[in-house]
Structure formats: structure tokens, C-alpha cells
Amino acid sequence: MASSSSTSLPLHICHGNKLTMIINRSHAVLHSIAISFLIYYRTSFLFHQPTPIIIPWLLLFTSELILSFIWFLGRAYIWRPVYRTVFPERLPNDDKLPAIDVFICTTGPDKEPTIGVMNTLLSAMALDYPPDKLHVYLSDDGGYAITLHAMRESWSFARWWLPFCRRFGIKTRCPEAYFSRTENRDSDSENPHNFMVEREKIKEQYVLFKERVRRAGEESKFKDKGVYTASDHPSCIEKRTSQFHHFKAGAVNVLLRVSAMLSNSPYILKLDCDMYCNDPTSARQAMCFHLDPEMSPSLAFVQFPQAFRDIRENDIYDSEVRSAYTILWPGLDGLKGPVLSGTNFYIKREALCCHSIRKYIDLRELKDSFGPSNEFINSLRQDYKKPNLNDNGEASNVLLEEAKVLASCSYEDYTKWGKEVGFLYDSVAEDFLTGFVMQCKGWISAYVAPSSSSRPQFLGTSTTNLNDLLTQGIRWGSGLVDVALSRFSPLFYGSSRTSFLHSMGYAELSLFPLLYCLPLWCFATIPPLYLLNGIPLYPEVSDPYFSVFLFIFLSSLSKHLHEVVVTGKPIRKWINEQRIWMIKSVTCHLYGSLDAILKKFDLRKASFLTTNKVADDEQFKLYREGKFDFWASTIFVAPLVTVMLVNLASIVGGVYRIMFMGADWRKMFGQVLLSFYIILMNYVVIEGMVLRKDKGRIPLYVNVLSIVFSLIFLSLGSIIISI
Predict the structure, then answer these.
(1) Which UniProt keywords apply (predicted)?
(2) C-alpha dihedral, 152 to 158 to 159 to 164, nearest 10°
(3) What predicted TM-score, i.e. pTM, was given to this entire model?
(4) Which domain holds residue 665?
(5) How many domains does the chain have?
(6) How far apart are CA 9 and CA 173, in angstroms?
(7) 248 among the known binding-site residues?
């Protein structure tokens, strides 16, 4: 239990679930024993097998070792999960609360609609926090004129929206979400008639606001067809083709410097442009940790989960990312704190900048770290006085000019920005890397998830089609493997700087794209190929070691099912997660890992794949109906179809051998079971190939291409086996 002082009530409490810990640890022990028997079986029989199956035996054994290793790393999450409760009503008076800067990042209206971005901005402005202590910044990576115009329109509409929210105690403070609700149970008003009159007035103003932004987006002067482009434009945030801009990390670091000149708040809320503030009290909830005198000196950030408003009960794409926010993050919170997750976190400015200033005394050394701006260096000092922006005189103009210098794309040259200061640049998963390095330097973090009876603190838009899901997965996979292959690899860098279990958890996260894609490709192809040729790779059913393999298989599935059920989800959720795990492992995890490896050897430039957030009615209709949208890139769909064809052919061939050629079913049962499980879990691919006639079906040319690939693999594989 953390307390604000020895005599006052605590601002937050932390508690664990002993029964859950007992179940988790008991399962880990039993599963470890089974894995040790498997390793003994493989090693003892490895050199007693006929020559033709030594190579597949080694491949399977290597895959089993890799999966065992990644499973072992993942035990860090289940060792001591904790859950937190906050009491924002116990915070000090508003005049004693610290100021907060809000950073919102967007890439431009092509993939992130302007109205959606403005709704996020308005929800941040409407947080239940002293208005004079809240400062909102928007970074448009493309520098679009329509974004600036929409900001001005949002400011005008906010004069209506913010007083309305505060007067009537509105809980949903994102205008689009609020006015799309069918019921009006979102207010504390005691005068329903007066409230409804005001609500209609505000709704009319919101419709006019949206129309003005829409019309402006269609006007030629906002089309950005001049000399400026999304990759080459001046500041406010400057970008040039000759200067690498470091994607989102670079944009946030610019905001970090500029905000130091204008507001210099000690705490920062970072939001993605599609993640609006759904609970206006989130800032006060975060302050329950940041203002705790026992925890605050070492606390870097408070992380809230990502939740999504468009998730259906049958979440076929696992867009909810349930395991991360209900299992992994609470598990890390019981060690040294959760991962910095890109959005929805309140971070201490000192953790990003000022922890370095203590190491330097000489002004020249300070400039080598933070850049040439004297004003910015002064802002890092504890005795720095925030400028008065209401002054329209010379001082205000000087600060604005200084902010433009800080936003220039060349400001970071020959400094330690992105290396030791601010968000780090070694990976496109800048959040993951930055949070990890912070915790290796001694900082801790906290994770606050909403209770089942409370509203999510933040809500966003999820991916509702296969192409966007896997494109996003490539970016995440590439960024995580970037970290695993870098000098900050949690396996080595973290083991000496943070706790063993904590570094294990980070290592699992950084390695899982690479360490899942290799074994799953092996299991999806090697056993089926040898099943087709009548060669067993697993012990026969009567062999005691068969029960070891079966136990490990069922143990993994049942533990995953248990985690799904205890978090309140149905069995269908477990099936969806199993399917998406397989799909991602043979597609985006593979491509993301290859991308990271190529970048490591300078064979490919770093890139940032933005997820499309423009709504597509046809795609969302398929998602709502629980149907996969296979109208995706061929590099995603062709591997899925090829794997299914290989397993279908092998199971048909294997059963034929057993029934008509006298093959011993007891020796082949393990491979038959594996292929059957792959087919059963991914039956939606067969539906897309054969049964469906809608727009989301698998295109004919992809089916033909996959048939060719599968025939080549099975033919060449069979020839090699027979040699």
C-alpha cells in the first residue's frame, strides 16, 4: 500500500491475487517437467534415427527448444501480477495540482481523418482538470494546411463544448462519441429539460463545426499542392528529405522541446490521434501516483490500457489485444512496471530530459546533449520560471522564434537527442525502447486498468480488416526485433541493470515475433510433408513419451483457455486468439523480423507503416458479421492458403496410407493430430478459398498461386526425402 503521508489516506492501493499466482506457478512447474522429458527424449533418440529423418528431427527439436525458451521468458508475467485501485477524490485542491502538457500525433488526413483527430483534441481539452494547467499540442507529421485550419475551428467550437461538459458533468467528452449515443444517461444534470435544450444547441454547433472542416478540406487552398509536401516542409515542425526525421519519436521530441518554451509542464500525456479521452478523470487518476511522495521520486510514467469502441463480441482479428492489457502488463507491474505503450500514458518530463542534466555542469557539455538553445537548457532547471504567453510584447515573440528554432529538423544534429535524451531512435518501436531504457536507469512505472464497473480511460479505433492488422503487425514486429538485435537487447543490456524477471519479460516481448515465426513455419510444413510420405516424426501412441508431447500440447492450450476465461471472455475468444497467433506468426511476424534483420545489416532503410484509420463500410460490415476480409495483400494471403493446402494434402495422403497401404496409424497419429488442429483452427481460410462469394473472399489468382507453391513444396520435399 502506498500512502501520501503517514497520517493521510492512501491515494492508491496495490493488491495481488494469491490463487492466481498459485495456479500460475504450479502450472509452470508441471509444464517445465514435461519439457525436460521432451528434451531428454529428443536428445537420447537423435543419433539413433535413420539418416533420412535426422534433418527434420533436428528442425523439430530446434523449434521445440525455441518455443520452450520463449515460454520460459513469458513466465515473468505470471510470477507476481498486481492490480491497482486509485482514489482521485483524495488528491489535494486544484491549485496544488501540477500542470500537464498533452501531445497528440498524426501523420495527416489521408489515413487519419481530420475530424477524428479534432475529436481527440477536444476530448483532451475537456479533461476534468484545472483549465489553466492543461496545454494541448498537436503534431501533424505532414504539415497539412487543413489540420491547422481544423485546429482553429476546434478552438471556436471548444468555447461551446467545454462549458457544456463542465456545467452538466458530461462523462463522454469526445463530441463524436457523445452525440452518437442513443441514450442521454451521460450527465449529472438535475434539470433534464434545461439539459436537453442545451444539448440540442451544442449538437447544432457540432454539426456546423464538422461541415466547416469538411468544406475546408475540399477547397483548393487546403489541398497542399504547392511547393510543400508531406516529406518536405518548414516548421512549425520542419521536415526535409535531406534530414532523417525519426518518425513518431522525432515528432514527440520536437514537441518536447517546443512545449518547454511555451508551457513547460512537469507531466505529459501522450495520445495517438485516434485515441480519445473517454474518462475525463484519467489525469487525476495518474496524479494519484505522481503525487505520492513515496513513489513519485522514482516514477517515470503511469500507463493506461488501450481500449477500442468498435470491437465486436466476436473479435475475429483479436484487435482488442486482450493478453497484453490483462496478463502481460499487470505481470510486469508486479516487477518494476509495465511497458511504455505508445499512447495513453502520463510521463514525467524529468524522466525524458532532466535526468541527464545532473551529470553535466559545463554549459558546453549541456549543449552537446540538449542542443544550442540556451532557453531550452534553462527550462530544464528546477528554478525555471514559466514564460507569460499572454504578453504580446517582445518577450513573447522571442519565445515563439526560439520555438521555431527548436522545431527545425537540423536542431538535433551533433546532440544526444534520440540517443540519451528524449524518445530514443534505435527502433520504430520508440515507446518500447524508451520505457525499457528508463527502467534500466532506475525509473519505475505503474499500470492502471479500469475495473469491470468503470469506463475505460481512453477509447480508440481498432483494425477491422486483415490487411491493416498484418501491416500493423509488421511495424510492431520490426520495431520489437530492432530492440532485440540492438545494443539495448533486454537479454544482455537489461540483465545487469534491472531485475532478472523484469528483463525476462522485456526479452519475451522483443523476441516473440522472431521466435514464433520460425517454429510455426516448421510445424506447419515439416510434419505434414513427412506424413504425406509415411515417415513418423513423433513417438507412437503406445510409447510413454507420446503422453509427454500430448501433455505439453494440451497444457499450453488449457493454460491459454484459462487466461481467456478468467478475464471474462468466452471460448470463442480463445479460438480467435489461437487463429490470429498462427496467422501472424507465418506472415507479419516473419516479415517484421526480416525487415529488422535487413535494417541491421544496412540492406534496408527504416520505415514507419501507418495503419489506415479511414473507415471502410464494406470492410466493417464483414467484421461485424464475423467474416474475414481476405481482400488483402498477396504476401499475407498466399502463405495462409499455401499452408492450408499443404496440410490438407498431407492429412488426405496420410489417411489414405493408413487405410489402404497398411501404414501404422499409431506411428502417424501425432502428425495427423497436428495437421488436423491447424486445419480446424484455420477453417476460415478454406471458407475464403471455396465457399464464400462476397467481396472478402480469397481472389482466384491467389488460390492458383498458392496451389503452385504447395505443389512445388510437396514435390521437391518428397523427392529430397526419397533420395
Answers:
(1) Cell wall biogenesis/degradation, Glycosyltransferase, Membrane, Transferase, Transmembrane, Transmembrane helix
(2) 170
(3) 0.91
(4) 518-722
(5) 3
(6) 30
(7) yes
